[in-house]
Design brief:
binds magnesium ion; binds adenosine-5'-triphosphate; Alpha-Beta Plaits; about 110 residues; 4-stranded antiparallel beta sheet; 7 strands; elongated; N-reg_PII-like_a/b (chains A, B, C); alpha+beta; homotrimer
């Protein structure tokens, strides 16, 4: 099973959520974050205004899915989150050993 | 070493914390999150009211522990967080390569 | 590629950021967190006042980097975040399978 973590622009959350839903992904966790990438000292557009890129508000999305769905999920996030401008975000993919659904005690892929 | 991430109902945080303490776990990190699981478009109870399940407030717990303690930690979280209703939460288990205690520079299991 | 997660004292964020920049690391994600380590029931100093250590405000930093840079990043964080007092924080290191830069579609180390 894979964990897909995406740091995106906050206003893209709804589009990313819909895109994940369209490829059949149902579970998603969202956290507020701030961050910066490669443009430290340069400017980035945020809500129409230019900011010196230090920490900018970002949203962190976490999606756990089966291996076979990961590529589709990554593509869905990439396409939905992209504006073409710097700061569009990053996706980090890692491996998960186990999943447990607390209500039922189900484990593994059945619990996703 | 294992990383146990649990997304739970916020009002269950204290019970989960106590349950972890009872199995000997001392360290815990907590983040505010929002999310949804499989019931998109259906309703979930939150503080006695019914919500259409889009994003609901959740708490994310992160516990790093030795491999030998992981099963007990997962069981403790599962039992403490369960209400029997949908939305009780998920646990994700992954592997950690190293831990460092910043104050002392200790590494590995000694640093947990 | 490695994921370095560090839970530090909030007032140390700027120093840690500068230390990472000095070893050539450009990307960083920051989340607000709360937590406790081994001193449950004891006191910890926070902004000059003593608190019984239950949940204290912490900052969580996430840095994804190439394997060859990880040790330098860990050392930079450790040195910048250390005050010598309890509660200085923890660093957790894990492995990342892939990285994607959303704007360009680049993958792997080129996307970091
Ligand atoms: N190496 C990294 N480690 C941790 N977080 C990162 C890293 N790189 C980027 N991020 C996070 O992703 C967010 C978006 O990064 P961003 O899209 O600016 O990446 P970038 O590499 O600078 O690409 P671009 O040139 O398109 O701006 C940052 O604000 C930060 O939160
Ligand atoms: N696949 C997933 N990826 C990421 N986060 C998830 C996933 N599934 C659930 N979550 C997180 O866990 C929270 C609780 O999920 P929930 O307990 O509703 O799971 P579920 O599979 O729908 O089980 P149930 O049928 O008991 O409701 C969600 O709000 C979301 O934050
Ligand atoms: N095992 C753990 N799992 C998850 N988070 C942890 C763990 N240990 C510590 N943390 C997080 O790191 C923060 C700082 O921990 P802390 O520095 O107090 O660790 P410690 O082991 O008690 O070391 P010290 O003796 O120097 O205080 C905690 O508030 C918590 O958020
Ligand atoms: Mg950038
Ligand atoms: Mg659900
Ligand atoms: Mg401590």
């Amino acid at each position: 099973m894979k964990k897909i973590e995406a740091i995106i622009k906050p206003f893209k959350l709804d589009e990313v959520k819909e895109a994940l839903h369209e490829v059949g992904l149902q579970g998603i966790t969202v956290l507020e974050a701030k961050g910066f990438g490669r443009q430290k000292g340069h400017t980035e557009l945020y809500r129409g205004a230019e900011y010196v890129v230090d920490f900018l508000p970002k949203v962190k999305i976490e999606v756990i899915c089966e291996d076979s769905v990961a590529d589709r999920a990554i593509e869905a996030i990439t396409n939905a989150a992209r504006t073409g401008r710097i700061g569009d975000g990053k996706i980090f993919v890692s491996s998960i050993d186990d999943v447990i659904r607390i209500r039922t005690g189900e484990k593994g892929e059945a619990a996703i």
